[in-house]
Amino acid sequence: MQSRNVTRVCAGLCALLLSLTAACKKEEQQQANPMAMMGTPEVVVYQVAEQMVRPQVELPGRTAAFRVAEVRPQVSGILMKRLFTEGSEVKEGQVLYQIDPAIYKATVESAQARLAQATAVEYSARQKATRYRTLVQTKAVSAQEQVEMEAAWKQAQAEIAAAKAALETAKINLAYTKVKAPVSGRIGRSMVTEGALMTAQQPNALAVIQQLDPLYVDVNQAADEMLALQEKMGGRKEAGNTEPTRVQVLLANGSEHGAPGSLEFSDVTVDQGTGTVTVRAIVPNPDRSLLPGMFIRARLTSPVEEGTIMVPQAAVQRTPRGEEMLLLVNAASKVEPRLIQTGRNVGQQVIVTDGLAIGDRVIVQGLQKIRPEMEVKVVQAEPEKAAAAPAQADQAAPQAEQKAE
Description:
The chain is α+β, with helices and mostly antiparallel strands. The chain has helices at residues 2-32, 34-38, 102-135, 143-175, 223-233, 383-387, 398-404; strands at residues 42-47, 50-53, 56-71, 77-82, 89-90, 95-99, 178-180, 185-187, 197-198, 207-222, 246-250, 256-266, 276-283, 295-301, 306-312, 317-318, 324-329, 335-339, 341-346, 349-354, 361-365, 377-380.
């Protein structure tokens, strides 16, 4: 009886040990292959489709003043006053310098006196000419004398015209003693001080005025690439488009400056030294933050849209070698890595220039649960939602990058 009980206890212990052993093996298998417990993972994909965007190109360039005027005196004399603040904004017609006007005032008064004298001579000659017309009819004077008197009157009239012209010239020269701004803009430093001798049409400028709003932007493009740029940026005639090419100035730190401008023209000659063609744009500069001579980059945007391929930025990964990569779902519903080349960003999407085709299914969510060659269940996403998908691409499994490598 006792031996029978011992046998039963031993059998129970053996059964317990077998069940514990099976449970441990099952747990080990689950820990070794956690994916087996999850089943087929679900991923959200973005199906690639053609999208219309406006082509862009960035070129280096420099800024140039819209207008540049050198201030020079038009009459000679001693400079009496400087009437502006260096570095300030001046208006067209504003008086900048005052030259001593004493001599020119005297010249005006002398011209006025000569005009008065010529007027008096003309009055006398006109009266005589009128009287001679009557006397010649009564034979009191000869016809020759009457003709000579008419000629003397006309000569007196010419003297008046000459005196008026001389007076006008004297007044102009007097006005030129006030040196005025030829254009509106920002004036630089003055090259002369009070007491300096000014000479009419002197080669050295008194100051320089530059108009800074708007501003020119001159960018250089290689001559052999100019035709491609014109085709890309000039717009197609058959499209009936009249909108100009937009130009956005990019500062040294990459930020955009103000409102975009427009492309004006391209030069008609090629620089023999550099082999480039200058393309000029005009951009607004209301805050005067851009100054002539600054190095900038200009982003040219075509007025004509063209078809391209874009994917959400969150889906783009990088291999250990730094190559850009996407994870796709192929026709067999398996994960497939794909190396790509990208262009510029457009909002939350990036343009793909090579490695992707219309209709490909790009994985945008669920990247942390998958690896290459794994079978997945596809959940289609709307293009707008896929573009705004949370950035989970950076959480992709390391195995995916190693497989792609």
